[in-house]
Design brief:
Helix content: 40-55%
Shape: globular
Number of helices: 8
Length: 191
C-alpha cells in the first residue's frame, strides 16, 4: 500500500466519488488518469500532490497500483466510497456508493480538482492516455530515462514517477514538496 492510500484513504475515496459523479461515465482507466492529472497539476501549482498516491510507469501511462487493483474483487481499497462495475464489454465503470464530502480538501485542492474536471472531465480514457504520454511529460521522460520497453507481454514496470522532477529549481515549490514529504512520511508512521 502506498503512503497516499495509507494516510489519505478518505480523501482519495471522496475524490473518486466526486469524479464518478461529475465525469460520467467514469471508466477505470479514466479514473486513473484524472487522479494522476490532479496530482501533477497540484505539484505544478503548489509543490504538493493532492492524494500522495504513487504512480508507476505502465504502458498506458501513470498508474497507481492501489487504484488499479481495486477493480479486482476483494481488493477494493475504496469499497466504502465507490464500486467497480465490470460491464459486458469488459470495461470497468466507477459508481459512487456514498455521498461526497469535501471535508478532507483545502480550498486550493478543490480549485485544482475543479480545473482538471473542467479541462479533462469530458475526454475519453484514450485521449487522457495521449495527454499523459505527451512528449516532455513526466511519464515520457521517466520511461526514456529508464529505457523502459513495453511489449505485448510486458505492459508494466516497477519504476515510480518522481514528482520532485516537476518542481525543478523552483525554490518555493521544492521546499514545499520536501517538507510535505517529510510530514506525510511521519503521518504514515502514526496510522
Amino acid at each position: 500500500m502506498c503512503i497516499g492510500m495509507k494516510v489519505n484513504k478518505n480523501l482519495i475515496g471522496n475524490l473518486a466519488i466526486l469524479l464518478a459523479e461529475r465525469c460520467k461515465p467514469l471508466s477505470h482507466t479514466k479514473l486513473l488518469k484524472l487522479l494522476y492529472l490532479i496530482d501533477e497539476e497540484a505539484v505544478n501549482r503548489t509543490g504538493s500532490p493532492v492524494t500522495w498516491l504513487s504512480y508507476n510507469v505502465w504502458q498506458y501511462g501513470p498508474v497507481s497500483e492501489d487504484i488499479y487493483f481495486s477493480k479486482m474483487e476483494g481488493y477494493n481499497k475504496l469499497s466504502e466510497f465507490v464500486r467497480f462495475d465490470t460491464l459486458p464489454d469488459n470495461t470497468v465503470e466507477i459508481m459512487p456508493i456514498a455521498k461526497f464530502s469535501n471535508g478532507e480538501f483545502c480550498e486550493i485542492d478543490l480549485e485544482i480538482i475543479d480545473d482538471i474536471i473542467g479541462k479533462y472531465g469530458n475526454m475519453t480514457a484514450k485521449q487522457l492516455v495521449e495527454i499523459t504520454h505527451a512528449k516532455g511529460s513526466l511519464w515520457e521522460r521517466t520511461k526514456t530515462a529508464h529505457d523502459i520497453q513495453f511489449t505485448d507481454s510486458n505492459k508494466t514496470s516497477d519504476i515510480t514517477l518522481d514528482f520532485a522532477k516537476l518542481v525543478g529549481d523552483d525554490g518555493f515549490r521544492k521546499s514545499v514538496y520536501y517538507a510535505t514529504v517529510e510530514n506525510i512520511e511521519l503521518a504514515s508512521t502514526l496510522v
